[in-house]
Amino acid sequence: MDAVLLFWLLSGTFSVALTIFLIVLLSSQKVFSYSFYRLVLVGLILNLLCWINTWPHRLMFRTEGEKFILPIFSIVPGLIRMSCGVFCQTFFHIQSLCIIFTCVHRLTSSMFKNANQLWNQYYLFLYGAITMISLFVANQFTYRKLDFDYETRKFVSTPLPPVSNKMLFIASTFFQEEYNIGDRWILIFITFYFTTILILSLCTFVAIRKRLKNHSQYENVRRRLTQITLANAIIYLIVLLWKLARSYIPYTYSIDVLMTVSDLVTFSMSYMMVLFDKNVQKVMKHCARVVPKLVDPGAVSSSRNSVIGNLRY
């Protein structure tokens, strides 16, 4: 087994175990029934599905993995191709929008009294909407065709023709080069998500400053928001740098980098919950002994203390 695959297995196993633990924790404790934790719960489930979806792509170009993928590919080749193409792209957009959702939730909770109630009512509808939108956008691109060469006994990826994007006829006029337009649009999406997260975080800083400027816990809240913003920014900066460098990396090696970056995005929410959410930290410390009295991060009232509770993560 090569080192990269071993790293994926070890880090992935630990991260998946942590994610499953958080899913069980958030779905079984009544204190985690507030809107923020419902957003996180759905996001964790989608992240877990994304990680599962990446494994055909991880194993396809490895000697150890071909024997597992080939029987499935022989029966349902279309499913494997969709997993490595459309589904991979769909989950990227879903994950990015999930992070943006948590930023929007944080902002609205600091501005409006009834934000928690509205999020509780409509969060499933919103997740359904972003799933459909992400799937629609992903379907507008043409992907490399994956086949199995029975002579060499290896999976092969057919490069795309010069015009490989069905999406948006303005692309041919917006870009001077028509080759690999699909990759250029993905770069635009990454930049858009990165910028949106920063703008929402800045707006949240301003809103919190207005309401908590003279509060004793203002500095703690500001510090925690700064850490969360930096974590999200670093993650998407890494994704952006990978996309810029991708054209200089051979395809088979770019898969290794892609899957590693994908894991970073996929499990970032799990680790950020453990690092920054005070309620989760209290439960993890005391679940074997006593049930702690937790702060409601979703209940928004006119008091300053409720604003602090909303910004635990």
TrEMBL record:
Alphabetic keyword roster: Membrane, Transmembrane, Transmembrane helix
- Quote the cellular component terms of the Gene Ontology held in the record: membrane
Annotated localization: Membrane
Q: Per UniProt, what is one Pfam family of this protein? A: Srg
Stretches that traverse the bilayer: 6-27, 39-56, 68-101, 122-143, 185-208, 228-245, 257-276
The membrane-topology field of this record reads: Multi-pass membrane protein
Molecular functions (GO terms): transmembrane signaling receptor activity
**Entry's Gene Ontology BP terms:** sensory perception of chemical stimulus
Question: What family name appears in the similarity comment?
Answer: Belongs to the nematode receptor-like protein srg family.
Protein name as annotated = Serpentine receptor class gamma
Q: Which organism is it from?
A: Caenorhabditis brenneri (Nematode worm)
